User: Fold this.
Amino acid sequence: MDWDNIRVFLSVARAGQFLAAARQLRVDHGTVSRRIGALETSLGVRLFDRQTTGCVLTAAGERLLESAEEVEAQLLRAQGDLSQSDVELSGTVRIAAPDGFTTLFLCSRLGKLKAKYPSLTIQLVPMSRTFSLSKREADLAITIERPEEGRLAVRKLVDYSLHFYAAKDYLAANGTPQTAADLTRHNLVTYVQDLVFADQLNFMPELYSPGYSRLECASAVGQLEAVRNGVGIGILHDYAGSHDTRLQMVMPDIVFERSYWIITHVDLRRLSRVRAISDFIIEEVTAQRAIFRP
Assistant:
């Protein structure tokens, strides 16, 4: 059985579409279709039911998926064992994480990692509600909710806090709220509620009622910039807001406590390149732990 065909099969099974699998594999749609056709011919079974919205595994496809993932896991474990002594790491590691953590903390620190491993390619991709490590959409993830399912290696990275902040100029012009009820007299900067990818980001659902004036932004970084520039009051990460001289914390007694978790698939955690990045992130966060809950 041709492993290249199995690799294509795994990608299609996880993506649920031939076109999406082709993009992930960086080949054309026709190549994926030919590979799947050759695999089905060699096995004498149909592996996918083609539908207008994608493709669904047949019973035979489900059985092959289970066996193929076992083989893939063995190959990954072997690769991890053989690369234990690697000095020069290479290849690609994709990290999925909330934009606040990547942009406000991680990005500025990755230069040290690249200097140590110049042949290593690091990809940062945004987190989404449908994100799945099991489908190999990333090699490593930073989440704000602990996953309860899947063959995952999970470790708490750090606890962090958020508060209400506003630009000092905004408060000078509009006054400083003393209680949550005072927020009805201010413009708020919030997430777009129906685009929030984790329930932990829905800090105060009552703020989305018609009684509140809002600018809604799907990006934590965008919210920070809006608050900095006097658009209104927003709930910001303390590791970004507390040291910003343009900002002032308001209603400090209202605090939101959250946690970051670092997650890898159990089949990938022993790969040297994945382990190196995971260790780097843990070391950087540990060294700066005080800024996450000032």
